[in-house]
Design a protein that fits this description.
Layout (H helix, E strand, L loop, with lengths): L7 H15 L1 H28 L9 H8 L34
């Protein structure tokens, strides 16, 4: 017995039918295309691993850049910003459906 109850003769018959349906040239092209796609995928994975250092924070790279870009001057030497008055906000509309009346 072969693979899962399929004998070698049944596999050969299936192979012959596939070759007759598609032809050797088309099967060769499909194999070449599939092989180049797999090679491209593997090389992109290797390139990505080579570009990303091991200790890099993969979850929040933007936050890591902001931390390193922060100024190193102490807060006491930085000029204080003048206080801005807060403008009163517009009144908000309320939903008076009568459900919360006592």
């Amino acid at each position: 017995m072969g693979f899962g109850g399929i004998s070698i003769w049944q596999l050969l018959i299936i192979l012959v039918i596939i070759v007759l349906l598609f032809g050797t040239k088309r099967l060769r092209n499909i194999g070449t295309d599939l092989g180049s796609a797999i090679r491209g995928f593997r090389s992109s994975i290797k390139d990505n691993e080579a570009e990303t250092p091991v200790d890099a924070d993969a979850t929040f790279p933007e936050a890591r850049k902001e931390v390193t870009a922060a100024p190193t001057t102490p807060a006491s030497t930085a000029p204080a910003a003048p206080a801005q008055p807060v403008a009163p906000s517009a009144p908000t509309a309320t939903n008076n459906t009568g459900s919360d009346k006592h």
